[in-house]
Amino acid sequence: MVHLLDLPDELLLMVIQCLDNDRPEISLNFWNLPRWCSQATKRCKRSQRVQHLHALLLVSRRFHSFVEPFFYRDLRVEEGQNAELYNTLTQNPRLLSHIKSAIINSSTFRRDGYNLLWKSPIQTLTLVKIDNLHPLEYVSQDDRAGNSSIQRLNLMRCSAEIPVLTAILRWPAALKAIHYDVTDQSRRHLPGRSSWNTGLRVPTWPCPSFVQALQSQKATLQEITMTRQFPPEAEEGPQIELCEFGSLSILRITYAFICNWGNSHDAWKSLPPNLETLEVFYDDEDWEIEFFEGWELPGFTDLDWEGAQWLRNLLDRKKTQFSKLSRITIRNPRSDPDNDLDIWPSETDEYMRPWKLPDLISKRCRDAGVELTVLVEEDPPSSIEDYDAIDIL
Questions:
Q1: What DSSP letter does each residue of 99-168 carry, written as one string?
Q2: Residues 6+ apart with CB under 8 A from 345
Q3: What share of the chain is helix, strand, coil (3-state, %, to 5)?
Q4: Burial of 27 (C-beta count, 10 Å sphere; 0-12/13-18/19+)
Q5: How far apart, in whole angstroms, are the C-alpha atoms of residue 52 and residue 29?
Q6: Bridge partners (DSSP) listed for residue 148
Q7: SS3 for 308?
Q8: How far is 257 from 276, CA to CA, in rounded Å?
Q9: In the beta sheet, which residues pair with residue 277?
């Protein structure tokens, strides 16, 4: 009887690869990624896949040499593990060549650790809790900027101002995707104006600063995700301007960053010309989706909101200015997008359900050649700490 250890190296490697590929298909909504990444740097249970690989790691030195690269391919650096990781990579530099992705709590990661990562072929880097004292400031040096292999950068719970953001974004040679999750602290030094109901100063959104910091990656950037970690009532400031990002084809964004009270009906003007997929998330459950205004729907009460008609205006210009746009997804935690409409969601899912579009909107989408999906209700509470980094990002 042939034992596992009797197999030749190439067959053993195939067995390990089969175990490594035994992953669940997980699609975590983009607005939940910051929460998951934050929790992942604090605690994260080992999945069954990781447990199987870890068991093989301890079988013998031969197995250890095969399995070890899989554990350093996707790093998840928990708080308190920084020194241990640094010492391991310093003592065994060959492990650097296996690193493809990393999730790091920036508030505790050591400066010399980033110097090590800079030498690795890392492609996806997730930094949690970036502030103005971030140790990646060294990337502003000319010999470091533009030399990293990073293609996807996730800045979660980010409170850094534009000098730090600009320095970090100069690091990759050709960035393809970025997720910018901004906190309330990032707006402390931005100009503001008085709130209409309290009279207190409300700092503006960080959209212009973010776009300015992105200039070094404008030619290669294909995907932008933008979420926020500050209260919905802080809705003051200019919308994001991406009309000069010709390579950008996917935009996932919180509603407030593309539509504000002043000119949301002109939101289409700020969108990238070659956009193919647009996902918009309404993070304020008290804000009804207002794209029904101007559609003359039965049961609709015409309230003169300035935030109206952004979807209609976008569809009107689809064929002439957004010829590649094929899919729009709108997500809202409300049970129905507008309480004045006597239309109910179709019950196909317990939590996030597709809303049945009125015929008038459906026809306009068909004429424009756009697939529109409206999803209502919040995501189910999930044990996201059970997911592996490779399964999520």
A1: --EEEEETTT--HHHHHHHHTS---EEEEES--TT-GGGGGGSTTTTT-B---EEEEEEE---HHHHHHH
A2: 335, 336, 353, 354, 355, 356, 376, 377
A3: 35, 20, 45
A4: exposed
A5: 28
A6: 172
A7: coil
A8: 18
A9: 250, 327
306: left (phi over 0), alpha (psi -120 to 50) or beta: alpha
Q: Which domains does the chain have, with CATH numbers?
A: 34-42+74-186+205-227 (3.80.10), 231-381 (no CATH)
pLDDT in tens, the chain (393 residues): 556 666 666 666 676 667 666 565 556 678 788 888 887 777 666 666 777 677 766 666 777 777 777 778 888 887 777 778 888 888 888 888 889 888 888 776 766 677 777 778 999 999 888 876 655 555 445 556 778 899 999 999 888 888 888 888 888 999 999 999 988 755 554 444 444 444 444 555 668 888 989 999 999 999 999 998 866 555 556 788 999 999 999 999 988 888 765 567 788 889 999 999 999 988 766 555 555 555 555 444 444 344 447 888 899 899 999 999 999 998 876 655 554 444 444 444 445 567 777 777 888 899 999 999 888 765 555 555 555 555 555
Q: How far apart are CA 289 and CA 309, in angstroms?
A: 10
Rounded to the nearest 10 degrees, the angle between the axes of helix 9-20 and helix 48-57 is: 150
Helix axes 61-73, 9-20, angle to 10 degrees: 40
CA distance 206 to 220: 22
User: How far is Cα 46 from Cα 35, in angstroms, rounded to an integer?
Assistant: 18
- From residue 86, alpha-carbon distances to 9, 89, 101, 161, 349 in Å are 30, 5, 16, 28, 45
Cα–Cα dist 255/282, whole Å: 5
Query: What separation, in Å, do the N-terminal and C-terminal C-alpha atoms of the chain show?
Result: 41
CA 376 to CA 351: how far, in whole Å? 8
Separation between Cα atoms, residue 197 and residue 281, nearest integer Å: 25
Query: Do β-strands 192-194 and 201-203 pair in parallel, antiparallel, or remain unpaired?
Result: antiparallel
Select from 313, 146, 156 the least CA-distant residue to 226.
156
The model's pTM is 0.82
Tokens of 13: 């490697």
